[in-house]
Amino acid sequence: MYGLKADDTRRQYPARLSRFFEFIGVEGLTLEQQCENFASRARQDPNYAYDALVQFLDYMNGKARNKEIVFGTVNNYYKSVKKFYDMNSMNLNWNVVRSGLLSSRRSANDRAPTKEEVRKLVEYPDPRIKTIVYMMLSGGFRVAAWDWLQWKHVAPQYSKETGEILAAKVIIYAGEPEEYPTFITPEAYNALKSWMDYRSSYGEVISVDSWLMRDLWQTTNMNYGARWGLMSVPKHLKKDGVRRLLDRALWDTGLRKPLQPGVKRHEFKASHGFRKFYDTYAKGARMLNNYVEQTMGHSLGVAQNYDRPTEEMMLSEYLRAVPALTIYDDSSILSKELSELKKSNQDDSRMVKARLEEKDFQIAALGQKMEELTSEVNWFPDALRVAKNIVARSHDGMIREDKSILDQKRRFTVSYVDNTGKRKTVKVPIDNVEILDGSPEDNFELPQ
User: For a disulfide at 416, which of 213, 239, 389, 394, Cβ 3.0-4.6 Å?
Assistant: First the structure.
């Protein structure tokens, strides 16, 4: 175990090595005894070490061909056994051994979670889930970083002009050789601050050395809940606890479902899927590739000895990705939406103004029409006087018919019987008078 650095490797290494020993039939009650027995025989017979490994890898290749395991799993077993050989000075021609391994995909066919899936995930009823998800999505760090993260490792970055929070700097693996800085969005920092304030409100003494993640405690029904921790004695929630929490949240929210027959992977991984989210969305927002890799803790190779950006340069570049890495609320997004709304309002104002001008024109035209109608109405008294004069010449002075509604030619009708007993009909227009079936002397004109 001396040569194993990563915690995940130290966890998986014994199981893989034990599988190798069981396949070739190495005796021993414990893994340590199996290691000693195999190493003792292999040093005496180098061919035994070579043949045993080749037979094991050929067996694993067969399982991969039958789709019982993926090709990458074969490579992981090869690495574990090779590490054991190297640490026990069993030198083989590794180029020859590796030439028999089946080639695997350079990358898995899983994807990053979508923002809609993330929104559903953070609805899980645990006050820690939103902080964990938002920080990992917008910071791009590994789940193992939770073993080191304390309150003192988070520093909000403020705008010099407005004083608002632009982002927050986070130190990953503080005090370790792998230490590096990254950033999280204002949304993630606000979620973290709310979580720390929530803990403080129940009486926990928050200091710079407080762990960012801790166990839960009983808030009601204090006589029950033996599985809950004590509020005043926080227990550090490390990477394995974070993994279990994320796994429960994925299943309980319906984002994880049983795999179909023949399917080996879910569509997206849990904690590692958040790193893919960060990489995908940050690069999609045109954040410089080198800065994306550095904030994820990736090595740039030789270039890393020369590419030494300042904190201001990295923050400036990170701010380009903040809108893309934000799940719900973000000041820059709100500002953009406000700007678009103002522009829309300006367009609406122009439209309203145009409509009002159109209505003013219509009102003016209506007023002119009213004036014309009023002028026409003023003709009626004169027209009625003409009708009265006509009727006065009738045989009995009686109007036989009175149609005051104008016809299509803008006339109203008056009918009477003259002295000869003949019925006469008078059409009285607005502009002049016309007597039908009458003599020329019976014609009248409206007075001017």
Answer: 394
